[in-house]
Amino acid sequence: MDSQDSHLKETRIDGELAYDGHFLKVTRDRIKLPDGKETQREFIRHPGAVVILPLLPDGRVLLERQFRYPNDRVFIEFPAGKIDPGEEALATAKRELEEETGYTAKEWNFVCTIHNAIAYSDEHLDIFLARDLTKGEAKLDEGEFLELFSATVPELLEMVRTGQITDVKTIIGSFWLEKYAAGTWTPG
């Protein structure tokens, strides 16, 4: 943290693991606020994930439709997945693209890192652009069900504008692809 931000810093006094799930862990910490008062913070510990922006040779973008239980509906999303312990983010991206879609990519570029739920989780998502795709066979995890489709970048942006796409990682990735297609942003 930058020293000029020290007047905003909250300091952990102690804490406990409030819930230890298979995938998520909930921590409850007692903290000291910048004004010296004490309070609690509860937040989700998450191992991190990757998001893939798969650009097909014709310029279309590969997308998924997947049911998400907490919201009881099907969402349109970019391929994504959790980073396994000890796994590099790029290796996760390559694995998830192939498992979920069957595609492999020859060109990979890191785009950016986003923090999608900063008030209640330490989750981060590393976004990668995948190009020069080759079709193969998907290897979905047991219990994973999704369908693939493709769209142009303008069609993707229209789905964002009309509310058909509400998933934050997909919205951010869509805006990033718009800048990439226009030549105003380049991946790392």
UniProtKB/TrEMBL annotation:
Residues 44-173 form the Nudix hydrolase domain. It catalyses: GDP-alpha-D-mannose + H2O = alpha-D-mannose 1-phosphate + GMP + 2 H(+). Its cofactor is Mg(2+). Keywords: Hydrolase. SUPFAM superfamilies: Nudix (SSF55811). InterPro entries: NUDIX_hydrolase-like_dom_sf, NUDIX_hydrolase_CS, NUDIX_hydrolase_dom. Belongs to the Nudix hydrolase family. NudK subfamily. This is GDP-mannose pyrophosphatase.
